[in-house]
Amino acid sequence: MASESLAPESPSPAVPDARASRNAEKIKYEGLGVARTILVVVYLIVAIWYLAWRPSTFNPQAMAFSVIVYGAELFGFVVALMHLFMV
Questions:
Q1: Domain annotation covers residue 6
Q2: Residue 19, domain member (yes or no)
Q3: Is 17 among the domain residues?
Q4: pLDDT tens digits, the chain, 87 residues: what are they?
Q5: Do 40 and 32 meet the contact criterion of CB atoms below 8 Å apart?
Q6: Whole domain around residue 55: which residue ranges?
Q7: How far is the C-alpha of 49 from the C-alpha of 66, rounded, in Å?
Q8: 47, 80 contact by CB (below 8 A)
Q9: What is the rounded distance in angstroms from the CA atom of residue 75 to the CA atom of residue 73?
Q10: Structural domain includes residue 87
């Protein structure tokens, strides 16, 4: 009996069955709405403006540190973009 529970399950078929296609049809999509869309657009405009302005404030005496901080800000912007487009 114990050996039966350890047996590997058969792999799923390469061709999806009819249940999977019916479940895919039931997925509902909800748009952002006007207020959230405006908020996203304002965020994108301000973030792009900020990232374009930010290099003009680099400290010439600590250029390596300024570039590292700017890279972290760019990384944060990219992560925020991925979040906006995936959620």
A1: no
A2: no
A3: no
A4: 555 556 566 665 566 666 666 666 777 778 888 999 999 999 999 999 999 999 999 999 999 999 999 999 999 999 999 999 887
A5: yes
A6: 32-87
A7: 18
A8: yes
A9: 5
A10: yes
